[in-house]
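Tutorial, part two.
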Amino acid sequence: MTAGRYLLVAVVAFAAALAGVWVARTWLAPAPRAESQIHAILHEKLTLDAAQEQRIHALEQGFATRRAVLEAEMRADNARLARAIAREHGYGPGVAAAVDRSHMAMGQLQKETLKHVFAMRGVLRPDQAAQFDAAVGKALTDPGK
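Running the prediction step on this input gives:
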């Protein structure tokens, strides 16, 4: 092989590696959760007073407990779905029931998350709430997130 071909192979390999990294970062890497972005705005962008910090901390602790319960329920639902798939080897009644059950838990988590977001908003002053609302809207609608 000539030096030119070695150089061509090296350049193609490098380009393929760059493309792989780009694909992984663009399409495969998980986006930050909207609630994480909202909490970052709340704690980093808004100037909360001590009373607000305390109230929000209490809200976050309560929500963390509720979220953990619902996430455990979703993991159990996934295990039931896996067992139904192994039994039925297709989209049968057991699989359909397991999917419906998991959707209920996911929906409940979404509702609880929204209640939590509104509870935190209730702690904010009007000027802070306006910034918070904009951040929530952006976190929920930004296609890159």
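The helical segments are 3-28, 34-45, 50-88, 93-121, 126-141. In part three we will examine how such features are distributed along the chain.
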